Every structure is written in C-alpha cells, then in structure tokens.
Amino acid sequence: MLLIILMYFYSYFIEQKTKTSQRPDIPQFIWETVPVENGYSNVRIIWVPNFNGNPGSHFFVRYKLKGETIFLETDPEFQSNSIEVCL
Questions:
Q1: Mind listing the pLDDT tens digit of every residue in the chain (87 residues)?
Q2: What distance in Å separates the CA atoms of residue 65 and residue 68, rounded to the nearest whole number?
Q3: Non-local CB neighbours of 40 within 8 Å, separated by 6+ positions
Q4: CA of 45: how far to CAs of 20, 26, 85, in Å?
Q5: How far, in Å, CA of 44 to CA of 86, rounded?
Q6: 22 to each of 11, 27, 59, 80, how far by Cα in Å?
Q7: Helix and strand tally (H, E) in the chain?
Q8: I need a surface site. Which of 39, 47, 82, 87 has the fewest CB within 10 A?
Q9: Angle at 84 (CA atoms; ends 78, 36), nearest 5 degrees
Q10: Cα distance between residue 21 and residue 27, in whole Å
C-alpha cells in the first residue's frame, strides 16, 4: 500500500506602498556631561524628535574637538534616543 501525502504551501503577502523619502523635521537636542573614572567627562546627547511632522528614523552626532579642523561622526543610532560621545 502506497500512501502519498500532498501538501500545498500558500504564499501570503501584503502589498504596501511607503511614503517618498523626505527630510525629517528639525528635532531638539539635550546634552549633559557624564563623569567617567579617569577624571574627564563624556557628553550624552539626547535626541528629541519632532512628532508633529516627520520625526525621522535614527540619528547620529557629528562633532569636533576644540582646536581641531576635522569633524568626527558617531555610528547611526536606531534603537535608543541618546548617544554618549567619549572625548
């Protein structure tokens, strides 16, 4: 006796269109110093997105040290609303 089992797999999908890419509205930033063990301080930058328009999806910090001419940039932050910059 031969038993044949046929299984059918259905592909379900939802088709959605996303909005066209646009610049985020201007957010607010709060910064605070964070003391560290070596006697210096780090700086924590807190991103407060503008929820009245397009808040954006992530942020990064672009900064330069006093007397320097080259800007440094953090990696984009997707999960948290703050970045701590080690000076």
A1: 444 444 555 556 666 676 777 888 889 999 999 999 888 889 999 999 988 888 888 899 999 988 999 999 999 999 999 999 987
A2: 5
A3: 87
A4: 29, 15, 8
A5: 9
A6: 32, 15, 15, 22
A7: 0, 5
A8: 39
A9: 155
A10: 17
